[in-house]
Amino acid sequence: MHIVLERLLRVRLGLMRTVVSREWSDLHDIGTPKFISFSRMVMDDAWWTEADIFIKSIRPIYSVLRLTDMEGSTIGLLYGFMDRIDESFQKNTVLSSDRLEKLRSIWNRRLDWFYRPIHALAHVLHPLWRSEEQESNKELLSNTSDFFSRWASDDLSMIRKLEDELLLVHEHLLSFGGPTPRLRETQLEPVSWWHKYGTSAPTLVWTKDLLIFIYDFTNLQIIKSILFV
């Protein structure tokens, strides 16, 4: 939908010239309902305005969907961007409240499926997303705690180790607190980041699933081109 509408907007002037041209009027099907409807649509400024509004409103969703098909895309990275879609809805001033609420409802149903413990842990372990916002996200923390419980088979001693080490990461303490772990260029290479700075969190580092959650291979150009735009 986004690709088709965006293309139509780009060729709008060409379409308008076409439907008023002699070649168009000479077509034998010009009087059929489809031709008439299409011609009216092309010349209708209100339709183009609506199309432009819709494109701008769904562009954040389209950008995330494109990201899922790109090299280097992992759940740890996607979680952060998907979480920001709702922020873009809140800032939307071009859609009517009814249409915006319908769009948010569709997106939230998908987002509810995506909010799973494994996705939450992938997000909190990705060095790029370390922030106070994570620490205040109750759903994120609850899902992370749930994953720890499952992975440790409710072993309270192991769960405590994991939680204590995660706190070090969030609070930028010990090996996580120096200037280089905070550099964007080092955070864009999460596997290398954990190998270099993860000495203070040996339990997290050697969790056998860790490298599944973050990058084995990172396409830096993709991330840099969309990050925090």
Overview of this protein structure:
InterPro entries: RNaseH-like_sf (IPR012337). The chain is built from 17 helices and no strands. Residues 215-229 have low confidence and may be disordered. Helix 9 (117-125) crosses helix 11. The protein is mainly α and 229 residues long. It has helices spanning 2-10, 12-19, 22-25, 33-42, 45-68, 75-83, 85-90, 97-114, 117-125, 132-135, 138-151, 156-170, 184-187, 190-197, 202-205, 210-213, 220-226. The protein has a domain at 72-226. The two termini are 23 Å apart.
Q: Any key phrases for this structure?
A:
229 residues, mainly alpha, elongated, single chain
What secondary-structure arrangement, pairings included, does this model have?
Layout: H1 2-10, H2 12-19, H3 22-25, H4 33-42, H5 45-68, H6 75-83, H7 85-90, H8 97-114, H9 117-125, H10 132-135, H11 138-151, H12 156-170, H13 184-187, H14 190-197, H15 202-205, H16 210-213, H17 220-226
Helix pairs in contact: 1-5, 6-9, 9-11
InterPro entries: RNaseH-like_sf (IPR012337)
